[in-house]
Design a protein that fits this description.
This protein has about 350 residues and is of the alpha/beta class. It has helices at about 10-20, 60-70, 110-120, 160-170, 175-185, 250-255, 260-275, 300-305, 315-320, 325-345, and strands spanning about 1-5, 25-30, 40-45, 45-50, 75-80, 80-85, 90-95, 105, 125, 130-135, 140-145, 150-155, 155-160, 190-200, 210-215, 225-230, 240-245, 285-295, 310-315. The chain has two domains: about 1-40 and about 110-190 and about 295-345, 3-Layer(bba) Sandwich (FAD/NAD(P)-binding domain); about 60-110 and about 190-295, Polyamine Oxidase, Chain A, domain 2 (Alpha-Beta Complex). The longest helix has 23 residues, at about 325-345. The structure holds flavin-adenine dinucleotide. Flavin-adenine dinucleotide binds next to helix 1, helix 4, strand 14, strand 18 and helix 10.
Length: about 350
């Protein structure tokens, strides 16, 4: 039996991993060069930094067991520090005691996607953007944007953020009633945009003792999250590397702004919040996350109608919350449904 997975984010990688022991040929299509999606890591000037998800929390026992028992743990690190809060006026206050670990990996959070895939025989097609799906004679075929076609597949798993999955479904050809229902189900999921601004300094930037991250709790500050990448073992040797995740409102007003403007405006807010001038960083970077985090979940009942024709969906849209652990679990759940579907189809 054959399966196509669209998207090598954590949900897609987790599904491939969960199906690794099944007698199944899996093709995994990823539009980017790397795997792990929004659990993303970049390397620059001798540093390594997580510019999407900051850390992984074990959302359930299942996720905990996979990360600590079933996948290699040599590179796994706990950010053993505190997260404090700040409000719209920039007043910083101690946060609640943290519950459980906050994990990343020495070589970056995208190690999780790589480890999941390393345990599989899935055929990874990097830099391959899927344009549409076609269902013909009871099997699926895939067209990419370069004009190549792949298939046939007995089942397909879609994992892009819901708005991108909707575009893909609308460009596809299969049972119109199913197509419409699945698209409607996915349209219920809405996402917010959040830009990440990276500021690297030669000298360490001062902050409250033992504090790794600062989170805005009232949604009234231009910065939603600020953290210090040097607290993650193996990421930064010298100085500070600040990760500022800007609020959806700030992101909206800076949507088309060039890099210099993004950095200048964000650095002013960071300087004010920390009461320390970071307006002339040694270097800077940014990432424009258009579909950063879901606000509302997809309609799972409608989405599940696709399963009638072997079309499955996974990803944080189903959870309605942007968490690596939830995306991982959604991939595991999709894998269980796919296994059941293919077993019945083979019988
Ligand atoms: C700025 C930011 C901060 C976050 N902070 C945290 C945090 O601290 N902790 C936490 O747990 N979570 C955090 N999250 C959320 C977490 O990163 C996501 O919930 C999770 O990684 C989503 O995984 P996914 O597999 O559902 O989707 P994705 O990671 O988006 O994976 C989907 C993949 O599909 C690919 N794709 C899309 N369209 C196509 C196509 N047509 N063809 C081929 N490939 C395609 C994409 O390139 C991507 O790799 C954060 C996210 C962001 C953006």
């Amino acid at each position: 039996m054959t399966l196509a997975i669209i998207g090598a984010g954590i949900s897609g990688c987790a599904a491939a991993w969960a199906l690794r022991t099944n007698d199944l040929d899996v093709d995994l299509f990823e539009k980017s060069r790397g795997v792990s999606g929004r659990a993303a890591t970049r390397r620059r000037n001798g540093t390594c930094f997580d510019h999407g998800a900051n850390y992984i929390k074990p959302t359930t026992e299942r996720v905990h067991a996979i990360i600590t028992e079933q996948l290699p743990t040599e590179d796994l690190v706990d950010i053993d520090r505190a997260v404090w809060t700040f409000d719209g006026s920039g007043t910083i206050a101690p946060g609640e005691d943290r519950e459980g670990p906050m994990w990343t990996y020495r070589r970056g959070i995208n190690t999780l996607g790589k480890l999941l895939l390393a345990g599989t025989t899935a055929d990874l097609h990097r830099q391959t953007r899927v344009q549409r799906l076609v269902r013909r004679n009871g099997t699926w075929h895939i067209d990419d944007t370069e004009g190549a076609t792949y298939g046939p597949y007995d089942a397909v798993l879609l994992t892009p953020p819901a708005p991108q999955a909707v575009d893909l479904i609308e460009a596809s050809t299969f049972d119109p009633a199913v197509q419409q229902t699945v698209a409607e189900g996915l349209r219920a999921a809405t996402y917010r945009s959040q830009f990440t601004i990276v500021l690297a300094t030669d000298a360490p930037v001062p902050r409250p003792d033992g504090v790794y991250g600062l989170v805005n709790t009232d949604g009234a500050h231009p910065i939603a999250w600020l953290s210090f990448e040097e607290d993650k073992p193996g990421h930064v040797d010298e100085g500070s590397l600040l990760i500022a995740q800007m609020s959806p409102a700030w992101t909206e007003t800076h949507y088309e702004a060039p890099h210099e403007t993004l950095v200048q405006h964000a650095a002013e807010h960071v300087s004010r919040l920390l009461d320390h001038d970071v307006r002339n960083p040694a270097w800077s970077d940014h990432q424009r996350w258009r579909y950063a985090l879901p606000n509302t979940p997809a309609d799972a009942t409608r989405v599940a109608v696709g399963q009638e024709v072997g079309l499955f969906v996974a990803g944080d849209a189903l959870a309605g919350k942007g968490r690596v652990g939830l995306a991982l679990e959604s991939g595991l759940d999709a894998a269980a449904s796919i296994r059941e579907y293919l077993t019945e189809a083979a019988a």
